[in-house]
Amino acid sequence: TGVPQNIKTAFESALKVKNIDTAICALALRRVLEAICKDKGADGHNLETMIQNMVDKGILPAMFDDACWIVRQLGNSAAHGDNRTFSFRHIEQTIDFMQNIITYLYTLPVKIEELRKTIEAEKSTSHA
């Protein structure tokens, strides 16, 4: 709910490859994070500065800064072909972080607004 199509598609693509190649999944999750930064109008010349800009503007709470750092680091390692293993557990946790970021930025505002309108409408009809 409320998630832009390009971000939804990119996130779903990351989920599809997690059981095939954890490095590609890490790279795809980094891509999702960058798409979110661009969608939210973050300023910066790289992903690190865009994330910091979103935290500075209050778009993302500071507690998500570390989660974004993890997504960025794993994605960078995957992109540069570093000789490392990406554990399934770490990828699962990273997916969870991204899901929470997406929920916070896109889904929660829509759901909160929908429920607020419903409650307001119920209040106005019960007072009529």
Instruction: Give the termini separation.
Output: 32 Å
Q: Could you tell me the mean pLDDT?
A: 94
Shape category? elongated
> What is the H/E string?
HHHHH
Number of strands: 0
Please compute the radius of gyration using only Cα atoms. Answer: 17 Å
Describe the structure.
This protein has 128 residues and is mostly helical. 76% of the residues lie in helices and 0% in strands. The protein is built from five helices and no strands. It has helices spanning 5-17, 22-39, 47-56, 63-79, 88-126. The two termini are 32 Å apart. The relative contact order is 0.16. The mean pLDDT is 94.
Overview in brief:
Helices cover 76% and strands 0% of the residues.
Annotation keywords:
128 residues, mainly alpha, 5 helices, 76% helix, elongated
Layout of helices and strands, plus pairs?
Elements: H1 5-17, H2 22-39, H3 47-56, H4 63-79, H5 88-126
Helix pairs in contact: 1-2, 2-3, 2-4, 2-5, 3-4, 4-5
